[in-house]
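Pasting as-is:
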Amino acid sequence: MTGAAPAVRRVIVFLADDLGWGDLGSYGAERIPTPHLDALAARGMRFTDCHAASAVCTPSRYGLLTGRYPWRSPLHSGVLGGTDPSIIAPSVPTLAGSLAAAGLRTGAFGKWHLGLDWTSRDGSRRTAFDEGFQPDMQASGRDVDYSVPFRNGPIDLGFDRFFGIAGSLDMPPYCFLEQDRTVGIPSVEKEELVTSQRPGLQVPGWRDDQVDVRIADEACAWIVERLAEDEPFFAYVASAAPHRPCVPPEFVRGASRAGARGDAVCLVDWMVGRLLEVLESHATLEDTLFVFTSDNGAPMIFPEDGDVVEHRPNGAWRGQKADAWEGGHRVPLLAAGPGVPAGTSDELVSLLDLFPTIAAMTDAAAPDADGEPIPALAPGAGSVDRVLGQQAFDGALVLREGTAKAILGTGSGGFSEPVGRLVAASSPDGQLYDLSVDPAETRNLWPEQPDRAQRMLRRYRDETGFDDTFLPRNALEDDAC
C-alpha cells in the first residue's frame, strides 16, 4: 500500500447467515433492535448496493474468502452438506493465507460450510475434485469416522486457529470443530429436530441455542490473547444466526417484534457488541478494521420463524434467499476503522471485493482474482468499471453493468415462484431490468433490448474467462450462450 496511511494491523470480518438487507436498523428495520450494528454504521461506511457472489451459503463464502467467482469451484449450483468435501483447492489463495503471509495471526470462528475432507468408516476419503462430484445436502454423516482428523479445512487454508461448526445449524454433524477434528465424537442421534434440521448424529449434550454464544466466547478469547501480545490479527467470525432453525438463547428471546428469527438477528447484534466491547476495553476499537455483512438475502418462505409481512427482511427488494432477484444477493455491508470515512456509499460492490480491499489496507499480497479494491475503503483505488456477476441457487448467472441487470433465466432460480429455467443469452426468454428506474424488477426489458444481455455476457467473458462449462449441465435448454 502506498501513501501516508499506515497499514491496518487488526481486521475483523463478521459474516451473518441469511441476514437480509432490511434486517438492520441502519437499513430501515423498525421491529428488530440492532444498536451495536447501528452504532458501527454511524461511525463508518454503509453500502447500499453490495452483493454476495451467490444467493446461497457455500458459493457466497467461497467468493468472500477467495475473491473468486463461485463458478470457478467444483460447485456450480446448490450448497454443500455438512459432510461434503472441501471446494477450495489447496492451490487457491485465500484471504487468510494472504494475511498470514503478511504477518497477521488468523482465526476463523463459527460456520464454515465450505466443505471438509472427512474420512469414511471404510477408510476412503471423497474430494470435490473427483469427476462427477455432486453435493449431498441431505447427508446424515453416519458413514464418517469422526475419530480421524479432517483435511483441507480452515487450518489448511490459511487460518492458525479454527473453532466452529461444519455447515449450517440444520446439518449434521451436530458438534463443534476445533482445528482439524470434532470436539467429542458424534455418537447419538440428534435428540430434537427443530424445523428443517436433518437427521444425523450429535455429541451428547449438544444445545442448538448455545452455538453462537460459544462462538462469540471463543472469538473474543482469541482476540484478547492477540491484543495482550500486541499481535496483528485477522478474525473471521461467521454466526449460525439467523439461519434456521431460529433458536435464540433465553437472554434474547422476545428482544424483537419479529418472532424467533428477529430475535436471532438480535443475537447477531449481541455477538457484534461483544467483539466491539473487547476492542474498546483494550483501546483498539478505532485502530481495527471491522467489516460486517451477510452471505445472502433472507428467506421469506418460513413464516413460522417470524414476521415477514410487517418486517420485510430484504427491504423493498424483490425476492429472497436463493433468488436471482435482488432480495437473493443484495446484502448489507458495513465497514468502520482506520481511514474509513463515515457516510453512505451507493457504489456497486461485491463481497468478492473484500479480499483485494483488505489486502490493500494491510499491505498484504492480493493475487489476481475477480474482486476489485473498493474505492471508498482502499487507498488509491479508482472507480470500478466492470460487469459484475452473481448466481442464483440453480446456478443461473446474473450480470450487472451499471444499473442494467440481466438474468439468464426465466424465473427466480431460487425459492420464489416461478422458479423458471436457465436460458442462453440468445434466448428470447431471459430477464433484463434497469434498476435506476425499476428497482423492484417489475418491467422486463429483455424483449425490447434482445441484444443487451449478449453484449453484457461477451464483456463478462472477456473480463473473467467465463464459459458454458461453469454452468450446471442442465442449464442451457436453448443454444449455447
